[in-house]
Amino acid sequence: MISRRDFLKLSALAAPGALTFNDVFAQADAISFGCPVPMSGPFAANGKFADMGMKLVLQKYGKVLARTPAT
């Protein structure tokens, strides 16, 4: 069993790393994401329209989470 003193030591060591971990993600210029839609099979028509809709929204609004999307 871990003692309270060891737990506090471990927490003190882990806290600075957890606080600076968010800075790594904040420096990305472009955000990339995908839309898992069917492109073959019986639902291919729905997948095509969903993909077209996603591209249309990106063209209209231009930013996602205050970042430009990757092309």
Explain what you see.
It comes from Herbaspirillum frisingense. This is Twin-arginine translocation signal domain-containing protein. InterPro entries: TAT_signal, TAT_signal_bac_arc. There is one protein chain. The protein starts with a helix and ends with a strand. The chain has 71 residues and is mostly helical. A two-stranded parallel sheet has the order 1-2. It has two helices and two strands, in the order αβαβ. It is elongated.
Describe this structure in a few short sentences.
This is Twin-arginine translocation signal domain-containing protein. InterPro entries: TAT_signal, TAT_signal_bac_arc. The protein is mainly alpha-helical.
List the defining traits of the structure above.
71 residues, 2 helices, mainly alpha, two-stranded parallel sheet
Could you say which structural class the secondary elements and strand pairing correspond to?
Answer: mainly alpha
What letter string, H or E per element, gives the SSE order? HEHE
Number of helices: 2
Number of DSSP-assigned strands: 2
Q: Helix fraction?
A: 55-70%
Organism: Herbaspirillum frisingense
InterPro entries: TAT_signal, TAT_signal_bac_arc
Protein name: Twin-arginine translocation signal domain-containing protein
